[in-house]
Structures are given as C-alpha cells and as structure tokens.
C-alpha cells in the first residue's frame, strides 16, 4: 500500500494523539488511586478527575474525527496529486516520444531532413567558434527509379534500408546520418579535411558496391554517387548544401558510382 508524505505526517499526528490519550489514561488511574487513598479529599479531586475525563473525551473525539473524516480526505487529495504527477510524467514521456518521431525517418530509423538541417546549423555555430573543418556528404542511389519500376516499391524500400544500415556502419559516432528524401541520404562529418572526407566517402561507396542484396527472389547490387563539400566558415547551411548537391550532380554526370568534391 502506497502512502504519500501528507498521509505519513497525519499518521504521525494520530500517533501523538494516541500517546497523549495513554498518558491521560494513566493520569486518570492515578487520580482514582488518590481518591481511594484520601477519602476525605474527594471533593478536591473531583475537579482533577473531571479535567482528565474531559481531555480523554476530546482526544477520543479527535482520534475518531481524524481517522474517519480527515484521513480519508487527505488520502483522496494525496491520491489525486499522485495521479496528476504520474499523468504529467506520462505526458512528458509521450511528448519526448512524439518529438523523436518527428525527427526520425520511419523507414530507416535514421534522422530526417528536419533534424539534419537543425544539426548542421548547430555544428556550424560551434565550428565557427573553434575554427575546425566541417564537411557534409550527400549520397544518392544510382538508377533507383528503375529498381522501383522493375521490382516494385517493397523491394525499393528494402534497398533503402540496406543502404541506411551501411551508412551507419561506415560513419563515426559523432557524425549525423540522415535520410533527407526518397533515395537520398546526407551525413554531417565534423573534424575532417577534404582528403579525409573524400576517403570516408569512397570507403562508403565501395562498401555499397560490394553489397549483395537478396530480397525475396530478387538479387540486387547497387551503387551510389556522393557529393562532398567542406564548409568555408562563412556560407549558410543552404549554400553549403547546394554546393554538395552540385557535386553530387557532377558525380551523376560523370558516370555515377563515384565521389565528387
């Protein structure tokens, strides 16, 4: 049985009343003993006996009123406060869950475009202060439309999930990997020079090319094109993204399955 602090305090108060009643009862016995020992002083003891009996009666009334009237009220109020507190915690947890859902791609479990944009802006603010390099990669599945047209959207979804898993495996714990739309992914990669960013992108590209996917009766291999860019320390998030996207377009025009910076 769960007790709230207000209930515990009230039970302590009742315990003190019980103690007071016990002491008054002892005083009552003492008065009676004195009356039997001093028959001649009975009139003088009557007032003391009346006071003891009156205190016992008041304590008994207080105990009964407290236990049968005030305690149920306090418990009900404490229960309502407890339920309100639990409801508040539950709503906070649901709010956090909804917020997480709003920033997560439901198909892959990666972050979504909204999260990517916010994270990139925050990284820019911090890296402008510490003057360290900040790069991004934009990744696009080659000939993805033909995969959907030939094998259906269910197979296409599995291809996207397989790529998302590979992107996670080949990025670092502090990188931000996101699915930003359709068959397109993006990565925020801090603290890498252009050469290092190129090497990371090419490792990812080669890993994808080596994937042998078996989806039902369908066996597939895919390739990706990747555009990379290093922030110049001045451009906006939109301009940095546009530059990486232009490099992705150059990789597509150059024959696909390549990295362009």
Automatic annotation (TrEMBL):
GO cellular component: plasma membrane
GO MF term (any one): diguanylate cyclase activity
One GO process term, biological-process aspect: cell adhesion involved in single-species biofilm formation
Pfam families: GGDEF
Keyword terms of this UniProt record: Membrane, Transmembrane, Transmembrane helix
Top EC class of this enzyme: transferase
Transmembrane segments: 48-71
Family annotation (CDD domains): GGDEF
GGDEF domain ranges (all copies): 132-261
InterPro entries linked to this entry: Diguanylate_Cyclase, GGDEF_dom, Nucleotide_cyclase, Rev_trsase/Diguanyl_cyclase
Catalysed conversion reaction: 2 GTP = 3',3'-c-di-GMP + 2 diphosphate
Enzyme Commission code: 2.7.7.65
Classification via NCBIfam families: GGDEF
Name the UniProt record assigns to this protein: diguanylate cyclase
Species whose genome carries this gene: Oricola cellulosilytica
């Amino acid at each position: 049985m769960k007790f709230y602090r207000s209930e515990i305090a009230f039970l302590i108060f009742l315990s003190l009343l019980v103690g007071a009643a016990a002491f008054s009862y002892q005083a009552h016995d003492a008065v009676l003993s004195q009356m039997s020992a001093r028959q001649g002083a009975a009139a003088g003891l009557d007032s003391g006996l009346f006071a003891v009996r009156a205190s016992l009666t008041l304590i008994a009334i207080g105990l009964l009123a407290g236990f049968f009237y005030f305690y149920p009220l306090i418990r009900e109020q404490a229960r309502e406060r407890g339920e309100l507190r639990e409801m508040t915690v539950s709503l906070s947890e649901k709010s956090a869950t909804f917020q997480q859902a709003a920033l997560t791609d439901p198909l892959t479990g990666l972050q979504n475009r909204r999260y990517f944009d916010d994270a990139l802006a925050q990284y820019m603010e911090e890296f402008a202060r510490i003057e360290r390099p900040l790069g991004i990669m934009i990744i696009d599945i080659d000939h993805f439309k033909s995969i959907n047209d030939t094998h259906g959207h269910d197979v296409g979804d599995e291809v996207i999930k397989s790529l998302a898993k590979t992107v996670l495996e080949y990025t670092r714990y502090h990188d931000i990997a996101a699915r930003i739309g359709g068959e397109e992914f993006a990565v925020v990669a801090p603290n890498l020079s252009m050469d290092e960013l190129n090497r990371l992108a090419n490792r990812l590209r080669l890993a994808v090319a080596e994937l042998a996917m078996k989806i039902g009766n369908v066996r597939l291999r895919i390739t990706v094109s990747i555009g990379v860019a290093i922030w110049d320390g001045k451009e906006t998030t939109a301009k940095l993204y546009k530059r990486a996207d232009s490099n992705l377009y150059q990789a597509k025009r150059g024959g696909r399955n390549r990295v362009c910076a």
